[in-house]
Write a structure and sequence with these properties.
The protein has two domains: about 210 residues, no CATH class; about 120 residues, no CATH class. The chain is about 30% helix and about 25% strand. The protein is built from ten helices and twelve strands. The strands form two sheets. Strands 4-5-3-2-8-11-10 form a seven-stranded mixed sheet. A hairpin with a 2-residue loop joins β10 and β11. α5 packs across α6 and α8 crosses α10. The radius of gyration is 26 Å and the shape is elongated.
Length: about 325
């Protein structure tokens, strides 16, 4: 399942018309919801002196309530440590245009994929070139005469002036924990990037992506009951959840589960293998062994799992593993 959200930060429009460097901050965070809706927070920080020189009508983000989301946005202003901030928070259902359809608006694509044991959410930010002549002009009080209006600098010049001083943070997230990202993980289900405003406005920002994952407790509970019935113990659910979170188990897309589907006995053997490895190895080393042997791959087979399981249950295995460690363990366990 997939939804696309058309985005534009009016913040960027405000930034490119202010000829002052080192006095601006932009923080934008977009988090996917389980229903493929979104929650967004955009924070603009300005040096208090800059805000005063612009006047109250020039505050960025102030027009969000009149945009596509209407009352779904809340906007507040506050001051801290010599900076004035404008914060806008918005929520919306799946498929809602976030801030309108401005030329060059970045696009965030939200995907959801059901797997055997989990649900995965993928958020991808794709930047496009933002034409400077398409950006709105700053607000000017309605009673100001032409002679009172400040002379505006060339937009391109304004952009270049601020490139060296603008602080930008973009964050994408989703339900659960991060499985993969080309950014930096900074919290549960959240990754961030720090592109320059030039990269954003020119469309040169690399594609930003984060994949998060939540456990499908109904499917996992059913599998845990089956494992317990095979003698795997009543802690099977806890062990399964831990192994899934660590990425140690095959977890194919629901649409790909067919004739080669692993059974409860296969997952029971996988848990036994993980337990034996964890007795000696660090958890990260166990992950390396499982990955190198292909046991955490969605293509792992019953025969492959059974062969490794038989070796790990041998009485001398633990003693050998204490000496061999990871690389030798991988070679020694290959079927």
């Amino acid at each position: 399942m997939q939804r696309r959200l058309r985005l534009v930060a009016p913040a960027l429009a405000a930034l490119v018309v202010v000829p002052l460097t080192g006095c601006l901050k932009l923080d934008a965070q977009f988090v996917a919801q389980p229903d493929l809706g979104f929650a967004a927070t955009i924070l603009i920080g300005m040096d208090a002196r800059l805000m005063e020189s612009m006047g109250s009508g020039a505050a960025p983000l102030a027009d969000l309530k009149s945009g596509p989301l209407g009352q779904a946005w809340s906007v507040r202003e506050f001051e801290r440590d010599g900076w004035r901030y404008v914060e806008a928070k918005g929520v919306g259902p799946a498929g809602t245009a976030l801030l309108g359809d401005y030329p060059g608006a970045p696009e965030v694509q939200v995907d959801r994929a059901m797997h055997r044991l989990t649900t995965r959410y993928s958020m991808t930010w794709r930047a496009q070139e933002m034409p400077l002549d398409a950006l709105p002009s700053p607000s000017v009080p309605g009673d100001a005469s032409d002679s009172q209006q400040p002379e505006m600098p060339d937009l391109q010049t304004a952009v270049e002036v601020m490139l060296s001083g603008l602080e930008v943070r973009l964050a994408l997230g989703g339900p659960g924990h991060v499985v993969s990202t080309n950014g930096t993980v900074v919290g549960e289900g959240l990754a961030e990037w720090h592109p320059t405003v030039h990269e954003i406005a020119s469309g040169e920002t690399p594609t930003l992506q984060v994949v998060t994952e939540t456990i499908n407790w109904t499917h996992l509970g059913r599998l845990a009951d089956q494992i317990a019935g095979l003698g795997g113990g009543y802690a099977a659910g806890t062990r399964l959840a831990d192994a899934v979170t660590r990425g140690l188990l095959p977890n194919p897309p629901a649409s790909a589960i067919g004739a080669g589907k692993l059974e409860a006995a296969d997952y029971s053997r996988l848990l036994a293998i993980i337990t034996r490895l964890d007795e000696v190895l660090e958890r990260s080393e166990t992950a390396v062994v499982m990955r190198e042997l292909g046991l955490s791959s969605d293509s792992a087979t019953s025969g492959q799992i059974a062969a490794v399981y038989a070796k790990t249950q041998a009485p001398e295995f633990i003693a050998q593993l204490r000496t061999a460690r990871v690389r030798q363990a991988v070679e020694g366990l290959r079927p």
